């Protein structure tokens, strides 16, 4: 059985962590940014140096292909994403992408010929932080969303998606363009768990059987700008009052009512944003998650009702937009079985689990058999510069991915 090269993989993770490195030890390599382009370039150059073929599609999804015996068979896809949160960690996405590339290199080193080709993918804009929605590249790949609907999207820094996408594609002229959504035989994504379960139970591998659902709402209250010192309560149309009431209900009432519920207000803006002006407008985001689609829809309705009520109480207009709607998804039993069998063969303990985070595999899983491999991260911390995965867990994850890739590419 071929083995991954631990030193090469750890060096590769460090090399990519240097692209967009933050002083606190994390990365800021947001989707389609200059740093994201630099990471794609480095990966593409390494692929070309190894004799792999490099492709990209119109969503700037990047593919690195090692041919197999039978070119008529659809390739096995492995990989993840290279973009990060603004204060992201070194492993979210990078671990799965670079381990997948290590799989290709290890197979090449060992001279193993697979039955079908294996392609490594780095999907575009998984995080959804700079441009919404997240999983943009994999949604477009799977036909679950339309690139043309997102081209007018504005980044948090004002950039237009269409411009950033074009610049990213142009920055890699060596990559052959291919039509979006080519057939693949299966998809396997290695990722850090981003939660505390594996570490707490001291289990090195999670076999992900399902992903919970996510909805992103953008809520805006509009009132009337007025003087902070002179405007009595009964004259105020204060959108901050409405936002405060709505958020208090989301955090203090809706979420505590259900232990499986996750609600997060991660971004808030007040206009004009002056200390002594009652704001004219306050907008904020709500990220809602639940493993059960019915419970998720009920929470969304409840957030709507509470926001409408809070807006009315403060005499404000209320606008609620649904920005992301990801139904919960189940992974393919044959792919999860291949992961379990690989762990058994490698004598690595594993356990089934549901992902609390969304992932590109959720969307690829709609068009091909897919599943995920999780490894523990320290204190379950992710979307944080302190994110950390031990070398032993990195190697166990990559070796498991290699074993699964061999099983699924035998053809
Ligand atoms: C992925 O980044 C998520 O927010 O689940
Ligand atoms: Mn990720
Ligand atoms: Mn993430």
UniProtKB/TrEMBL annotation:
<dbReference type="Pfam" id="PF07687">
    <property type="entry name" value="M20_dimer"/>
</dbReference>
<dbReference type="InterPro" id="IPR010158">
    <property type="entry name" value="Amidase_Cbmase"/>
</dbReference>
<feature type="domain" description="Peptidase M20 dimerisation">
    <location>
        <begin position="210"/>
        <end position="314"/>
    </location>
</feature>
<keyword id="KW-0378">Hydrolase</keyword>
<comment type="similarity">
    <text>Belongs to the peptidase M20 family.</text>
</comment>
<dbReference type="InterPro" id="IPR036264">
    <property type="entry name" value="Bact_exopeptidase_dim_dom"/>
</dbReference>
<dbReference type="Pfam" id="PF01546">
    <property type="entry name" value="Peptidase_M20"/>
</dbReference>
<dbReference type="InterPro" id="IPR011650">
    <property type="entry name" value="Peptidase_M20_dimer"/>
</dbReference>
<dbReference type="InterPro" id="IPR002933">
    <property type="entry name" value="Peptidase_M20"/>
</dbReference>
<protein>
    <submittedName>
        <fullName>Zn-dependent hydrolase</fullName>
    </submittedName>
</protein>
<dbReference type="GO" id="GO:0016787">
    <property type="term" value="F:hydrolase activity"/>
</dbReference>
């Amino acid at each position: 059985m071929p083995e991954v090269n631990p030193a090469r993989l750890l060096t590769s993770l460090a090399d990519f962590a240097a692209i967009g490195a933050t002083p606190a030890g994390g990365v800021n390599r947001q989707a389609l940014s200059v740093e994201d382009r630099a990471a794609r370039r480095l990966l593409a150059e390494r692929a070309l140096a190894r004799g792999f073929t490099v492709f990209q599609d119109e969503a700037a999804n990047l593919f690195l292909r090692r041919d197999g015996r039978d070119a008529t068979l659809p390739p096995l896809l492995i990989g993840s994403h290279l973009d990060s949160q603004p204060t992201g960690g070194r492993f979210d996405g990078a671990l799965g992408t670079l381990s997948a590339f290590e799989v290709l290199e290890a197979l090449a080193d060992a001279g193993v010929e697979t039955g079908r080709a294996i392609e490594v993918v780095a999907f575009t804009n998984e995080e959804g932080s700079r441009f919404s929605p997240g999983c943009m590249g994999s949604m477009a790949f799977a036909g679950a969303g339309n690139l043309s609907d997102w081209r007018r999207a504005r980044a948090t820094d004002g950039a237009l998606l269409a411009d950033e996408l074009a610049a990213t594609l142009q920055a890699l002229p060596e990559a052959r363009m291919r039509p979006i959504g080519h057939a693949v035989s299966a998809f396997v994504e290695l990722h850090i768990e981003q939660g505390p379960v594996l570490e707490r139970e001291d289990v090195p591998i999670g076999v992900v059987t399902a992903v919970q659902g996510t909805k992103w709402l953008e809520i805006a209250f509009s009132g009337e700008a007025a003087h902070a010192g002179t405007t009595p309560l009964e004259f105020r149309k204060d959108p901050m009052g409405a936002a405060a009431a709505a958020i208090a209900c989301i955090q203090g009432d809706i979420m505590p009512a259900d232990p499986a519920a996750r609600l997060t207000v991660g971004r808030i803006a007040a206009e004009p944003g002056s200390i002594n002006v009652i704001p004219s407008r306050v907008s904020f985001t709500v990220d809602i998650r639940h493993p059960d689609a019915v419970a998720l829809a009920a929470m969304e309705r409840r957030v709507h009702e509470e926001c409408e009520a809070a807006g009315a109480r403060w005499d404000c207009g209320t606008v609620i937009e649904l920005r992301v709607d990801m139904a919960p998804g189940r992974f393919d039993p044959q792919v999860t079985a291949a992961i379990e069998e690989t762990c058994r063969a490698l004598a690595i303990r594993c356990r089934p689990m549901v992902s609390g985070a969304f992932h590109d595999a959720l969307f690829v899983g709609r068009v091909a058999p897919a599943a995920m491999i999780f490894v523990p991260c320290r204190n379950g911390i992710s979307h944080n510069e302190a994110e950390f995965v031990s070398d032993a867990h990195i190697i166990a994850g990559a070796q498991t991915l290699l074993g699964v890739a061999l099983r699924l590419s035998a053809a």
